[in-house]
Structures are given as C-alpha cells and as structure tokens.
Amino acid sequence: CETCSKEAAKYRCPRCMKYSCSLLCVKKHKLALSCNGVRDKTAFVSVNEFTDLNLLSDYRFLEDVGRTADAAARHCIVHSPATKRLLYCLRNKARGCNIELKTLPVGFTKRRENSTTFNSVENKFYWHLKLIFPHCHAEYTLKGVPDDKTLADILKPYIDPVESDPVVCQRLKIYTASPQSDVRILMKIENRSRNSVRYNELDASRSLLDNLKGKVIIEYPTLFVVLKTLKNDMVVLGQDGSEPAENSDSESSSLSSVEEGEIQDSS
C-alpha cells in the first residue's frame, strides 16, 4: 500500500495508479492528491503500449461524446432566446477585448460550471477562473474575478506567505516557501493538436484582461502555477527551441477530433 506502507495492496486507483490496501487508504490518497478516482480517458498512450483495450476505450469515449453532444443539441435551454442572447453578448464583448471566447454545448461540464458574466455598467468581465498547482496536485475554482485584477493579487490568498489562508498555505507550502520570482503562471494554448501541447507564460504584474488579450478561451481561463526550479513537462511557446513565441491569432487553428466535436460554433 502506497498510503500506509503497512499492508499488502488490494486496489489500484484507475486515475493515478496508486496502490491501496483498504477503503480508508483509498480515501486518504484521494484527499492527499486531490484525486477523484476516475480514469482519465484522454490520457496519452504510446503506440508501443497501445492495445485492443485502449482502442475499445477510445471508441466508447467517442460514442459518449457523440451522445452527450446530441443530447445537448436537443436540450430546450440551448434553443432558448435568452441563453443565445447571453452567450452572444459574452462572445461579442470578449471579441471587443481581442479575446476569442468559445462556448461548449449545455451538456458539457465546463458549460455547466462557467459563471462568467459581463457587467455593462462597469464595462467589466467577472471571470470564472480555475487555478491548478500541479506540484501539489491541488486546484481551486474562483468565481466573479474582475478582469482588472492583477494575477499577483489573484494568487496572494494562495501562495503569499503572509496573506494566504493557513490551511491553503500548508497544502501549498512548496509554493509559499519558494521565492516569488520562481513562480510561473502558464495557460494552455487552445486549437493545437494533442501531440503538440504548448503553454503561454503570463505576466503576474499585469491584469487578467491584459493577459487574456490575443488568446483563445474555451468557456473560462485555466491557469497553471508552476515553479521554475522544479521539473515539469509543460512546454512554453518560444522556449522549446522549435517555435517562436506568438499570440493565438497566428497559431494553428486545427483542433483535435474530440475538441471539434465539443466546441459549439460561435457563429
């Protein structure tokens, strides 16, 4: 057992492949690693390791995507004038800020979660935002984040040694113990094939709106907070030696087959 290291393992987590000996250890490992125990159906599998089971899994996954998209297309809320008007307003306002905002059908999780709004009086976005701290296997969801707030201020309640919540600080102690200069904020570049995943590095001193300009956003921004001193497999565009840094306007517009099925035509 990789949790208690005392008993023989009886179970293996489909998500993170950790071995456990009992229900108690299963719950402990889920809590410690923020693991939901659900197998990642889109995890990369090399050609050498690809089996008939992987092929069957992919086939069933694509069937599930097709059913979900079809059910969402038939949903009455999709055809509601109020819903269409709201989504059109959000996309139009984002376009005015040089942000390409894409929305998913109603049946998808990100569409249900998204609480992003635009305040016409203040002429300001209040974003639904997700923060992921991969070195601690932790993620947090923020709602109503004003677009003029700097990324440094957004992160203060999480990684600032003084201002962060004590419980959060303990969980993210690897971040709070590191110099602020080591903290990097990355955002995945959309509209790229799955075998060419790249990230943009954001400027913590600038506002959320300034950092999102020229980017493609699917429903809401997801920010990855990483440390320079720790090895990670996230390739930053312009720092991998093969591609120059560029904004999303000049990036490839090809989507993976799954993404094409998920993204609702904004026109």
TrEMBL record:
Keywords noted in UniProt: Isopeptide bond, Metal-binding, Phosphoprotein, Ribosome biogenesis, Ubl conjugation, Zinc, Zinc-finger
Record keyword Phosphoprotein present: yes
GO BP term, example: maturation of LSU-rRNA from tricistronic rRNA transcript (SSU-rRNA, 5.8S rRNA, LSU-rRNA)
HIT-type domain mapped to chain residues: 1-35
InterPro entries: BCD1 (IPR051639), BCD1_alpha/beta (IPR057721), Znf_HIT (IPR007529)
Comp. bias intervals (Low complexity): 242-258
UniProt-annotated stretches for the region Disordered: 238-267
Single GO MF annotation: zinc ion binding
Cellular component GO terms held in the UniProt record: nucleus; pre-snoRNP complex
Domain of life: Eukaryota
Pfam families: BCD1 (PF25790)
Protein's job: Required for box C/D snoRNAs accumulation involved in snoRNA processing, snoRNA transport to the nucleolus and ribosome biogenesis.
Family classification: Belongs to the BCD1 family.
Subunit composition and interactions: Interacts with FBL, SNU13, NOP58, NUFIP1, RUVBL1, RUVBL2 and TAF9. Interacts (via HIT-type zinc finger) with the RUVBL1/RUVBL2 complex in the presence of ADP.
Record protein name field: Box C/D snoRNA protein 1
Species this protein is from: Setophaga kirtlandii (Kirtland's warbler)
